[in-house]
């Protein structure tokens, strides 16, 4: 149920480190806005972050896992460097209740979402002497 059980509300990928676009070799912040279920003992929800350098034929590479600290809406983030690959890449967030990290855990209270996006070639500067 929406805003009752574990769920991913949104995923964003933002360029960081002075860049204004997503480009190969650049650093990004991946943010998953999630709803965490909590009872009197806290929450057991964790987001597993993955990257695919080809969104059309994804082979998911594990980045990191972030545990929710409390119940309710919250933002869980990781940073990552965009690998060389295709010009259309993707990120996956697997949001799970307990269990172990997985690309798609499939539990009753788990949620998984992907986000595909365009990636530019790395910008280079030419030195003219």
Give a nutshell description of this structure:
By secondary structure, the protein is mostly beta strands. The protein is 0% helix and 48% strand.
Layout of helices and strands, plus pairs?
Elements: E1 7-15, E2 27-36, E3 45-52, E4 61-67, E5 72-81, E6 88-97, E7 111-118
Antiparallel strand pairs: 1-2, 2-5, 3-4, 3-6, 6-7
Class derived from helix and strand content: mainly beta
- Give the helix level as a range of percent: under 10%
Question: H/E order of the elements?
Answer: EEEEEEE
Q: What is the distance, rounded to the nearest whole angstrom, between the alpha carbons of the first and last residues?
A: 63 Å
Low-pLDDT runs of 5+ residues are none
Rg estimate, integer Å: 16 Å
Number of helices: 0
Mean pLDDT: 91
- Which strand order does the major sheet show? 4-3-6-7
Form type: elongated
Portion in beta strands: over 45%
Sketch the major β-sheet. Answer: 4 strands, antiparallel
Let me know the number of strands: 7
Structure keywords:
48% strand, three-stranded antiparallel sheet, four-stranded antiparallel sheet, 129 residues, elongated, mainly beta
Can you characterise this structure?
This protein has strands at 7-15, 27-36, 45-52, 61-67, 72-81, 88-97, 111-118. The chain is elongated and about 65 Å long. The strands form 2 sheets. A 4-stranded antiparallel sheet has the order 4-3-6-7, with no helix packed on it. It has a 3-stranded antiparallel sheet with strand order 1-2-5, with no helix packed on it. It is mainly β and 129 residues long. A hairpin with an 8-residue loop joins β3 and β4 (61-67).
